[in-house]
């Protein structure tokens, strides 16, 4: 069984943390799964987010999973998140996509939905 975790909640939401917890559990059990960051969930990929020292960093936690972290390019750009290529293409002065995350089109989400046996949205 293949699971798609569709993360649409902002990183400040408890739902975003539940998505991470499920991803960690699926990985620990060697289950087949994919993730896709969409809508406000793309903010997880913003390297400029500040997290207090006494709080766990959601971006770092996703990076530590060492899995592919696709992010919707349109949703990211609309929220001020870009990689170097898109920064140059759209005349944006700097990039701020966190390491390990990658900007992709919605075709990738369509493919993930098509191949998944279950979809869980957070």
Automatic annotation (TrEMBL):
One example GO MF annotation: sulfurtransferase activity
Cell location: Cytoplasm
Any single Pfam family the record assigns to this protein: DsrE
GO cellular component: sulfurtransferase complex
InterPro entries, per the entry: DsrEFH-like (IPR027396), Sulphur_relay_DsrE/F-like (IPR003787), Sulphur_relay_TusD/DsrE (IPR017463)
BP term (GO), one: tRNA wobble position uridine thiolation
Keywords: Cytoplasm, Transferase
NCBIfam families: PRK00207.1, sulf_tusD_dsrE
Family as reported in the entry's similarity comment: Belongs to the DsrE/TusD family.
UniProt name for this protein: Sulfur relay protein TusD/DsrE
């Amino acid at each position: 069984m293949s699971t798609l975790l569709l993360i649409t909640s902002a990183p400040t939401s408890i739902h975003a943390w539940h998505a991470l917890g499920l991803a960690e559990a699926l990985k620990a059990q060697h289950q087949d799964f994919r993730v896709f960051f969409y809508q406000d969930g793309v903010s997880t990929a913003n390297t400029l987010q500040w997290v207090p020292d006494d709080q766990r960093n959601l971006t770092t936690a996703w990076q530590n999973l060492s899995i592919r972290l696709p992010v919707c390019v349109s949703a990211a750009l609309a929220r001020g998140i870009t990689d170097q290529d898109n920064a140059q293409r759209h005349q944006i002065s700097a990039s701020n996509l966190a390491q390990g995350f990658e900007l992709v089109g919605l075709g990738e989400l369509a493919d993930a939905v098509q191949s998944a046996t279950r979809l869980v949205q957070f």
